[in-house]
Design a protein that fits this description.
The complex is a heterodimer. Chain A is an alpha+beta fold. Chain A is built from 4 helices and 8 strands. In chain A, a hairpin with a 2-residue loop joins strand 7 and strand 8. Chain B contains 3 helices and 7 strands. Classes of the chains: A alpha+beta, B alpha+beta.
Chain lengths: ~150, ~80
C-alpha cells in the first residue's frame, strides 16, 4: 500500500477528503486526522506557501513511505496546499488509518512534525499590505527531535 | 544559459524568483552577483540543489548549459 500524498495549488474540502479516505479503509478500527488552517488574527490578511517542485512533492512522498514503514497502518493521507491562502482556509490535512488507535495517533503526529520542519516549504504572511517571510520556529525543531 | 532559482527570502534579495546566468564555475557566477545576494546564497544554512538533487559538497561546481541551481534557505512550512 502506498501513501496518498497530494500537493494542491487550490483550496480543498477537508471533510470530503477525510470521508473518502475513511470509506477507502473500512477495516481500520481507527482514523486519526489533523487539519491545519490559516490562523485568523494578528493582522494576517493572507498566507502564502512557496514550494520547489523538484523537491517538495518527492520529499512528501518519501515522508509517507517512512511513516508507513514505521507504523502498522491501513492507510495514510497527506494533503498539503501551496500558493496563497486566506485566514480560515485549510493548509494541511493528515490522516492515518490503523487497526489500533495508538499507531494512528503516532503516525499522524510524526507526519505533521516532519511536514512542519522538514519539508520544502517557505511561508510568508501579508500584514497591512506587506509580505513578510516567516523564519523557522525553534519549537518545530524541538518537535522533530522527539522522533530521533 | 544556466538558471539560478531563489527560494524564500532569497527571492526578495535577488529581486525575482530566478535568474539566467552564463554557464561556468559557480564561484565565478556568484562573483558576478550583487555582493549582498552572493553572501546570502553562500550562507551556512542555505542548501543547494542541482537539477533537483541536493548536493552536499558545494566546492568545485561548474554550471553547464541548461543546469538549474536552486538555493534553499531554512524551511518554514506547514
Amino acid at each position: 500500500m502506498a501513501a496518498d500524498v497530494r500537493l494542491l495549488g487550490a483550496s480543498f474540502d477537508p471533510a470530503a477528503q477525510l470521508a473518502a479516505f475513511t470509506a477507502a479503509h473500512p477495516s481500520a478500527g481507527g482514523v486519526v486526522s489533523f487539519l491545519g488552517q490559516v490562523r485568523a488574527g494578528e493582522g494576517v490578511e493572507a498566507l502564502e506557501l512557496r514550494h520547489y517542485p523538484p523537491l517538495t512533492l518527492p520529499g512528501m512522498s518519501a515522508l509517507g513511505e517512512t511513516v508507513l514503514a514505521r507504523w502498522a497502518l491501513d492507510g495514510l493521507l497527506i494533503v498539503h496546499r501551496h500558493g496563497e491562502m486566506a485566514p480560515g482556509e485549510p493548509i494541511v490535512l493528515v490522516a492515518a488509518a490503523a487497526r489500533h488507535r495508538r499507531d494512528a495517533f503516532a503516525a499522524a503526529d510524526f507526519a505533521m512534525d516532519h511536514l512542519k520542519s522538514d519539508s520544502w516549504f517557505w511561508k510568508r504572511e501579508r500584514r497591512a499590505g506587506e509580505w513578510h517571510w516567516i523564519e523557522p520556529r525553534q519549537q518545530d525543531h524541538a518537535d522533530l527531535a522527539r522522533w530521533a | 544559459m544556466a538558471k539560478l532559482v531563489f527560494l524564500g527570502r532569497l527571492e526578495d534579495l535577488a529581486g525575482g524568483p530566478d535568474r539566467d546566468v552564463a554557464p561556468g564555475p559557480l564561484e565565478a557566477v556568484l562573483a558576478g552577483l550583487p555582493v549582498e545576494l552572493a553572501v546570502a546564497l553562500l550562507g551556512d544554512r542555505v542548501r543547494i540543489a542541482r537539477n533537483g538533487e541536493l548536493i552536499t559538497e558545494r566546492g568545485g561546481i561548474v554550471l553547464e548549459e541548461g543546469d538549474e541551481i536552486a538555493f534553499l534557505p531554512p524551511v518554514s512550512g506547514g
